[in-house]
Automatic annotation (TrEMBL):
GO terms for molecular function: hydroxyisourate hydrolase activity. Keywords: Hydrolase, Purine metabolism. It comes from Penicillium salamii. Signal peptide: none annotated. CDD domains: TLP_HIUase (cd05822). PANTHER family: 5-HYDROXYISOURATE HYDROLASE, URICASE AND TRANSTHYRETIN-RELATED. Its EC number is 3.5.2.17. It comes from the Eukaryota. This is hydroxyisourate hydrolase. Belongs to the transthyretin family. 5-hydroxyisourate hydrolase subfamily.
Length: 165
């Protein structure tokens, strides 16, 4: 274990970088066009088994469609399950848009309060919600298709996010 603060910081940053880097074993076809990834900054490990909800907030079709998932052992969500009566998938919603310039607004919500509580940790955040805009349509490999990845670095008192790749 690193003995000085600088070494500990360097080691933790290296751990985060390894977690953020995409895994080459996952093919692009095996994931939805919107994915997310969550790292627990308190422990420096992936936020495994964290409930996540993806919701279509606005757009030309099916506003309000929701999808659920739970992060895997690497803290990632690659595929979403429809909630309620909708059977439409995230790829189908985006494939059905009119043009490659069409925009839809989405929300991804991480249920962090109960997740930290189950670990005996009090969290300032009951949930963390990230809203973002998706531009494009089509199926993977077609013109206009884009992948949107939403990484979140999460702690019981802080979080940050950015547009991933």
């Amino acid at each position: 274990m690193a003995s000085n603060p600088q070494d500990r910081i360097t080691n933790r940053l290296a751990l985060y970088q390894r977690q953020i880097s995409p895994h080459s074993s996952q093919t692009m076809a095996a994931r939805d066009p919107i994915t997310c990834h969550c790292l627990n900054t308190l422990s420096g490990t992936p936020a495994a088994n964290l409930p996540v909800t993806l919701t279509l907030l606005s757009g030309p079709t099916k506003s309000g469609a929701s999808f659920r998932a739970t992060t895997n052992a690497d803290g990632r969500v690659a595929n979403w399950t429809p909630v309620g009566t909708t059977e439409e998938t995230v790829p189908a919603i985006l494939a059905g848009l009119d043009t490659a310039e069409t925009k839809t607004n989405w929300s991804v919500r991480f249920e962090v309060g109960p997740w930290y509580e189950a670990q005996g940790i009090e969290s300032f955040w009951p949930e963390v919600e990230v809203k973002f805009t998706v531009k494009g349509r089509g199926r993977e490999g077609e013109e206009g298709w884009r992948h949107y990845h939403v990484p979140v670095l999460l702690g019981p008192w802080n979080y940050s996010t950015y547009r991933g790749s």
